[in-house]
Design goal:
It is a single chain. This protein has 333 residues and is of the alpha/beta class. It folds into 2 domains: 178 residues, 3-Layer(aba) Sandwich (Rossmann fold), CATH 3.40.50; 136 residues, Hypothetical Protein Tm841, Chain: A,domain 3. It has 8 helices and 14 strands. The strands form 3 sheets. It has a 6-stranded mixed beta sheet, sandwiched between helices. Strand 13 and strand 14 form a beta hairpin. Helix 2 packs across helix 3 and helix 6 crosses helix 7.
């Protein structure tokens, strides 16, 4: 599987180097740790800091969401691997403005361990930390065990709402509350069509037949619910939406924000065809789309496929999702 790289051992370092050089008005790397990046935009004293992070390979997540209206800093891990505690701690110290820092990350064992360790170290330096785990993937565990669910594309909305709350002056507990509320109101389901490959191996991350799809596939290639013959876009969208509706019943007149997220190599044409069906189904149910997002927001290298995320909105979340954003990889006016 072909890639435009130099030495596979240093792809993350070279990616970070290129990213910082491409967007110097948005982001800079801390001297203390080259996997720790923070916004270049000045932040007022008393603002809650927003720290995101996770493994590389999900671009534009997570670096792409450092900017106005979203994250203040990011800790970068190896490909599909959690960042260690050291860069998390350095970012925490750099973005703390006296009001504490909220850590936002996916519900994966390595992230839970390393962000937890960093939080303990930060508190030893008198920095208050709140941690919120994204766990929106309905395929990864039944609702009775929802604490075991993975975070996938719904993380984007958690970042968006928490970042907006922090910009509006919410205190630490309130920002964390908003992040947890957003996660609790979000459900995602994905489908995989083709695997990706790690630069170090060049081998497919999983096996799938030429005319197969895998419903419920995780963002790192974790097994889904089932493999089946590839069907039409409308049938695929219906199969992704059904478990979301079963898990989070939506009533006529309720409002949602929708994300149709590409996993890396799926064309915008295909994603808009999927969105077309999502809009049809929601309209038939009397559910209103308040905002919609279509594109590559949290990818898996060059994996083929997509995910659908629905986040149920109330008046508070509508105001927060409307908040302007100015990040290198995401702008909303």
């Amino acid at each position: 599987m072909k890639k435009l790289i130099n030495d596979p051992k240093i792809v993350v370092e070279e990616m970070i180097d290129g990213y910082v050089k491409a967007h110097p008005s948005y982001i800079r790397r801390l001297e203390e740790n080259d996997r720790a990046l923070v916004t270049t935009r000045p932040k007022t004293k008393g603002k809650v800091g927003i720290l995101v992070g996770g493994g590389s390979g999900h671009e534009p997540a997570f670096m792409g969401y450092v900017g106005e209206g979203m994250a203040d800093g990011v800790a970068v891990g190896n490909i599909f691997a959690s960042p260690p505690p050291a860069p998390i701690l350095e970012v925490t110290k750099a973005i703390d403005k006296g009001a504490g820092v909220v850590y936002l990350y996916g519900n994966y064992a390595g992230d839970v361990m390393n962000f937890g360790m960093a939080a303990e170290l930060a508190e030893m330096e008198d920095i208050q930390v709140e941690m919120v785990l994204a766990s929106d993937d309905v395929a990864s565990a039944p609702i009775e065990e929802k604490e075991k669910r993975r975070g996938i594309a719904g993380e984007f909305f958690v970042f968006k709402m928490a970042g907006a709350a922090a910009d509006r002056g919410y205190n630490l507990e309130e920002v964390a509350r908003v992040a947890r509320k957003t996660n609790g109101n979000s459900r995602s389901m994905g489908v995989g069509l083709t695997p990706c490959s790690l630069p170090q191996t060049g081998e497919p991350s999983f096996e799938i037949g030429e005319n197969e799809m895998e419903i419920g596939l995780g963002h790192h290639g974790e097994p889904g619910i089932r493999k089946a013959p590839l069907e039409s876009a409308d049938h695929v969208a219906d199969q992704l939406l059904e478990p979301i509706f079963n898990d989070m019943p939506l009533n006529e007149g309720e409002e949602v924000t929708v994300l149709v997220n590409g996993l890396g190599s799926t064309s915008r044409m295909e994603l808009y065809i999927i969105f077309r069906r999502v809009e049809q189904v929601l309209k038939e149910k009397g559910i209103k789309i308040y905002r919609s997002y279509v594109g590559d927001y949290i990818t898996s290298l060059e994996m083929g496929g997509c995910s659908i995320t629905l986040t149920k909105l109330d008046d508070e979340l509508k105001q927060l999702v409307d908040q302007p954003v100015d990040c290198p990889m995401f702008v909303q006016k």
